[in-house]
UniProtKB/TrEMBL annotation:
Protein name: O-Glycosyl hydrolase
Annotated signal peptide: 1-20
Family: Belongs to the glycosyl hydrolase 30 family.
Domain Glycosyl hydrolase family 30 TIM-barrel: 80-267
GO terms under cellular component: membrane
Top-level taxonomic group: Bacteria
Length: 504
């Protein structure tokens, strides 16, 4: 390490000055003239390195398809006077740059069984109608939700060209369920297979076709959302793995194909816990499932014990996926009191790292994009005075979605001499761009050396999210490499920091 001391850059000086180093070191650094560091100061700085990260360009893992958020709870989104800004901050170039939106196959659309036609827009309405108008206020809650989702998806395509739109089904129309008066899946309430498998398949296909007629081509649809959840009051449908697999192969895939929707993929099974999805999918006919999916909440054992929130230790599935994409299609912290600090942000950071860097998912979709209240389940919240609140979870999401784009591949990032940091590295083979996302959930600043194996780079730039950062992604000046091509960087405590560069 010390043989490269004369090559230390002025960027390192800036990093050290910005860090929580000792007063004596700060004074020594500040008194150093003409940008030159004494050997003692440099040695002291580098001697505090507590982590080494080797980036191996030649060892490659999964391809990223993108990051997204749910456009559900669509009515408050549609009615918000700040909806344009919210949309821009989630899917726009200046915001999170999400490229996926998850919608809902709502259960209350008008459906003509004879023709298989689903009506997705209430009669006599316009997606641009004034939400304060008498005509809009005369709509019932279901009609408002239908109109709101159509507006969101059409505007996302028009303004931000969001390429991947998917839709999940919470429950079939109630008249197709075993208990026709119950929205939830309590008491194992689900699709009535004796009468309604074909009808439900045609309903999902009709919904997809109706959106296609409006210019929205869904990338994929899912016939179930948390099919094991027989406890909650919200809309849901109980499925067994056997019945869901049969329905997809025998009913849904043929219904989609019959409407010319052969290219629309099918997602399944979207269980609430990653471990549950592993068990569910392992025993299911997946021959017509194109994307394997689960959610990122705590496992069932923790839920029974009264715990909620983001899964901090999901495990890699132990069955063969057949090289099909694996998506995490819903996660948020539903555990309690609103927390817009790095405490909440780091829960998401650990969750995202575990899914992306250990469970090898190809896409990560957050639960809610926005809410008209302050709640941990949403990336953007609304204060009592109507202003928008951006919790640190918003910033953490951006550490991945802004710097790890669709088409990037994860590559090897070996961490040594440290058990606290969580590191993942990502590259675009076409351009040579790369990003290294480092999560530091610990309370100590960590001086880290990034070693490059199989490539070189002339500089890296960092983007920091911490409790004391005012910008969403606080950008540093470019940092030059040491004489051996490595970079000496500082990772602040309780933070997420991304380093970007271009391979040479």
């Amino acid at each position: 390490m010390k043989k490269n001391l004369p090559g230390i850059s002025l960027s390192l000086l800036a990093m050290v000055l910005a860090s929580a180093c000792t007063k004596n070191m700060r004074d020594d650094l500040q008194s150093t003239a003409n940008g030159k560091l004494s050997n003692g100061v440099v040695a002291a700085a580098l001697a505090t390195d507590t982590a080494n990260i080797t980036l191996n360009w030649g060892t490659t893992y999964q391809r990223i398809e993108g990051f997204g958020a749910f456009a559900g709870r669509a009515t408050p989104f549609f009615e918000s006077p700040k909806r344009d800004s919210i949309m821009k901050q989630l899917w726009g170039a200046d915001g999170l740059q999400l490229n996926i939106v998850r919608g809902e196959v709502m259960y209350h659309y008008p459906f003509d069984k004879t023709t298989g036609t689903v009506t997705i827009q209430p009669a006599g309405t316009s997606i641009d109608m004034d939400v304060t108008s008498a005509a809009y206020q005369a709509l019932n809650s279901n009609q408002k939700a239908q109109l709101a989702q159509l507006w969101i998806l059409k505007k996302l395509k028009e303004r931000h060209q969001v390429p991947i739109m998917v839709a999940s089904t919470w429950t079939p129309p109630l008249y197709m369920k075993t208990n026709t008066s119950q929205e939830s899946a309590k008491n194992f309430n689900g699709l009535n297979y004796n009468c309604c498998s074909t009808d439900f398949a045609n309903y999902v296909a009709g919904f997809t076709k109706a959106y296609q007629n409006e210019g929205i081509n869904f990338y994929a649809v899912s016939p179930s959302n948390e099919p094991e959840n027989v406890f909650s009051d919200w809309a849901a449908s109980y499925w067994t793995a056997s019945h869901l697999g049969q329905f997809i192969s025998n009913n849904l895939r043929p219904a989609l194909n019959a409407k010319g929707l052969n290219s629309v993929k099918i997602i399944s099974s979207e269980n609430a816990a990653w471990g549950t999805a592993n068990s569910f999918l392992s025993g299911m006919d997946k021959s017509n499932v194109d994307i394997l999916a689960g959610h990122g909440y705590v496992e069932i054992g923790d839920l029974i014990l009264g715990k909620r929130g983001l899964n901090q230790d999901p495990k890699t599935w132990n069955y063969a996926t057949g090289n099909r994409p694996t998506w995490m299609t819903e996660a948020s912290d539903d555990s309690g009191v609103y927390d817009n600090t790095m405490t909440g942000g780091l829960k998401l950071a650990v969750n995202m790292h575990k899914f992306l860097a250990e469970c090898n998912v190809n896409a990560y979709v957050y639960w809610l994009g926005m809410l008209a209240i302050r709640n941990n389940e949403s990336l953007i919240c609304t204060n009592g005075d109507g202003s928008l609140d951006y919790p640190k979870t918003y910033d953490v999401m951006g550490q991945y979605s802004r710097f790890v784009h669709a088409g990037y591949y994860r590559f090897n990032s070996a961490l040594a001499n440290n058990t606290t940091l969580k590191v993942s590295a990502w590259k675009d083979p076409a351009t040579g761009k790369f990003s290294v996302v480092i999560v530091n959930p610990g309370g100590a600043e960590t001086r880290t050396r990034l070693k490059l194996s199989g490539f070189a780079s002339s500089q890296v730039t960092s983007y920091l999210t911490a409790d004391n950062t005012t910008a969403h992604w606080q950008q540093s000046a470019p940092l030059a490499p040491q004489a051996d091509g490595s970079f000496v960087v500082v990772v602040p405590p309780t933070s997420v920091i991304t380093f970007t560069g271009i391979a040479q």
